[in-house]
Amino acid sequence: EELYGVKRWGAGYFSIGENGNIKIAPNHRLPDVTIDMKEVVDEIIAEGIQLPAVIRFHDILRSQVEILNETFQQTIEQADYQGKYTGVFPIKVNQMREVVEEIIDAGEPYNYGLEAGSKPELMAVMAYNENPEALTILNGYKDEDYLTLALLGRNLQRKMIIVIEKYSELEMLIPLARKYNVEPMIGLRSKMMVKSTGKWSGSSGDRAKFGLSIAEILNIVERLRQEDMLHCAKLLHFHIGSQLSDIRKIKEAVSEGARLYAKLVQMGVPLEYLDIGGGLGIDYDGTSSTTDSSRNYSTDEYVADVVWGVKQVCDLEKVPHPNLVSESGRAITAHHSCVVTNIVGEVKPSSVDYDISPEDGEHILVSNMRELVSAEELHPQERYNDAASNKASAYEAFKFGILSLPEMAKIDTMYWQILSDIHADLDKDSYIIQELEELEDMLASQYLCNFSIFQSAADTWAIGQVLPIVPISRLEEQPQVRCSIADITCDSDGKLSKYIEGTEISDNIPMHTLKKGEEYHVGMFLTGAYQDVMGDMHNLFGRLTEVHVYCHDDEPGDFYIEEVVPGTSAEKVLETMQYNTDFMAKTVKKSIDRQVRKGSLAPREGVRWTDFYEKCLAGSTYLKV
Ligand code: PLP
């Protein structure tokens, strides 16, 4: 637990069982009821499902919805706050239908709503958020169709709030509202002055992409007053960025937003809701700090700062407490899904078994390296320096045609052997020479994982996000090797470069040696927010197979697989790139038939190869192991 930080990033959902397997306690109300992740994976494999797969624990999703809503409700009660909490889930964070359905279902007792940021998302939320008491918040840039769909929502008695991001949207909305004779509910998104920190700091400040300046807000208020539509202005919105790591920025934003809200109400704008956007962070790296992959606060603290912060400002300004809306996406979904994959190979710099025996007339550089192989008496730094300079000279000699290929192979093999020996003999406590410390990284293996980082962990590649990686079993055993995790894309960028090791972030990760005949499964956790839906088609790998896991209510600790959503087949990904797979199959068949006619393939073989090509088209894009 300590080594991989499972307890720290696990938020109570993940831990390590006595049998060395990852344990999951998906229901926050029943923390002692756990399921064994290895049993889940074994069942997936027994059902003939090929890894890699996304495993969704729907009970975690429900727990997160309950925790957020109940924390707001309890804090509101404790603070004697007069407004309600009516949160929304921003579907851009995970638009999977099953995820949205689960959130809507779990959120029903709290009138938990949805947020959309684009036209297709708006169409989805219209169909899935039918609760007339729950809000539908409409963000993002809008055109006439977007606004008209929102007006249709009002006709359906939904609480659809059109958040005006820029002045021109209001000028588009006014005539449409008149044309369809619908009274819209309007929100105003404020461009905040507080400067947030972290990867999404661009979401606030003067240069923010979205939102209205104070001058624009006042112009909009005036315009609405002229049109006799001021009563439609219901909500003030702000969002200063996702994954806010420092609670002080949240407090500042709440205080700025609440002050703006109060001043607008005092001017006669009949606002009822204050929407604080998203930003509630996740402790991905388990450090509980202000790193970009963590947060220095808990959900309780976040909620308390929002509720008490808004109350204090509104009491001072003598305006009624607004209903509070938040748009937490990451915090709702991150924990519920993980990617489970298998290791399909190991790339080791020092693993090649090559005969290094001396030969008559061999080059002096080869014999020099051989002497270093047995020079255990030398100081490790001196032995390392000599080996490194000998290798560099050998490279130069090879370029001038002085060394043969077998000689080069011997030098390389001996070099890595020397480095491994130096590393093995080093007294870890006296690691003082920096170059020797780097030996660990130089000798680290790469474990090849059957997945694509671009598909399943886009943020690790794009913004240096840390995601926890842990073997799902053998955790009672001390790991024996250090390695990095590389994916199966043909891109050297396709590897993870940051790993959790204890309370540190390391360049590589301790793992267990691979045993012949045993599958070693690794889980990448906390992938439920953004990672699940941002994947791209790099190398045409496409979506992973999804397995939806639920806990048995009547048999604590037991689970069942409710649904399996097959991953994208090779033909499906090819079709999204405009390939006609029927045409491809026919063309390949024709080429095979030609060889059959020529006699270079037997007819029976021709049929077999044709079937095989078609089977591969219908099959998985990932490696079959
Ligand atoms: N609301 C808006 C307007 C956003 O832009 C975002 C994401 O950046 C969110 C909500 C969700 O934020 P988070 O996932 O940090 O909760």
From TrEMBL:
The modification N6-(pyridoxal phosphate)lysine is found at K92. One of its GO terms (biological process) is spermidine biosynthetic process. The active site is at C490 (proton donor). Residues 361-440 form the Arginine decarboxylase helical bundle domain. Belongs to the Orn/Lys/Arg decarboxylase class-II family. SpeA subfamily. Its EC number is 4.1.1.19. Residues 571-623 form the Arginine decarboxylase C-terminal helical domain. The keyword Metal-binding applies. Keywords: Decarboxylase, Lyase, Magnesium, Metal-binding, Polyamine biosynthesis, Pyridoxal phosphate, Spermidine biosynthesis. This is Arginine decarboxylase. It comes from the Bacteria. PROSITE patterns: ODR_DC_2_1, ODR_DC_2_2. GO terms for molecular function: arginine decarboxylase activity; metal ion binding. Catalyzes the biosynthesis of agmatine from arginine. Its cofactor is pyridoxal 5'-phosphate; Mg(2+). The keyword Transcription regulation does not apply. Residues 80-334 form the Orn/DAP/Arg decarboxylase 2 N-terminal domain.
